[in-house]
Amino acid sequence: MLHLIKLSVGPKDVAALAALQAERLKTAPPLRAWTRMFPKRIDEITDGGSIYWVVGGFVRVRQRILGMREEAWDDTTQCAALLLDPTLVLVEARPMKAFQGWRYLKPEEAPADVATGGPAPRGLDRLPPQLRRDLAELCLI
Is the pTM of this model over 0.90? Predict the structure, then answer.
């Protein structure tokens, strides 16, 4: 298994990325992300790999890559379409400098998923709900 890491160009936070993808899924399914260069290690990536999104200077979320196919942009330039699971999985925030395109990401180098649904750490349940949401969005809890 192998992952990809890519900058989320446009959305400045995870909520904006989720809204953009929800709209794309409604208007032009299946959910895809496009990139100019076609990864050569397709079999490894589609064997359980994810795309890790850098949002606002931090690796913040990941999505399973379900497949890849060749497509063309409006100007007929060939590109790779990454077919994505619509579920965004929060990961431990990690700062990342800007780069172009995508990079391979080994599983052992990928940030861990943020545990959700379990008991809140001691005292967090006493915070106002909006503050908890804001802190979660910043990947601080």
Answer: no
